[in-house]
From TrEMBL:
Protein name, per record: Arsenate reductase
Family classification: Belongs to the ArsC family.
Superkingdom of origin organism: Bacteria
PROSITE patterns attached to this UniProt entry: ARSC
Pfam short name (any one): ArsC
Extent of the signal sequence: none
Amino acid sequence: MLKVYGIKNCDTMKKAFVWLEANGVAYEFIDYKKAGVAAGKLPEWCRKAGWQVLLNTRGLMWKKLSEAQRADVDEAKAIALMGEYPSLIKRPLIEHGDQVSVGFDAERFAQTFKS
């Protein structure tokens, strides 16, 4: 079963939920803000997907950060920022087997998750 990590009220998450349910894909949803699992999982997710993929630099939370926080971001700084501000993690993040998929794209979902 897929593990889908994200934030329940996120519009992109809602699109992913609709797609998964419409295509009969079973999943477990984990709200990483409420469950507090993000910080412990971030090193593994970065290793599998890359911190540049995980770090959401287009969202409102990124824009709210100070210039100093956004400057000179490397993997260690990205992990620290995403651990402190889970909203900076691109959504959805899906664990499937030993793979990690980040973001919603209907075509990619169809290739990856549809049986």
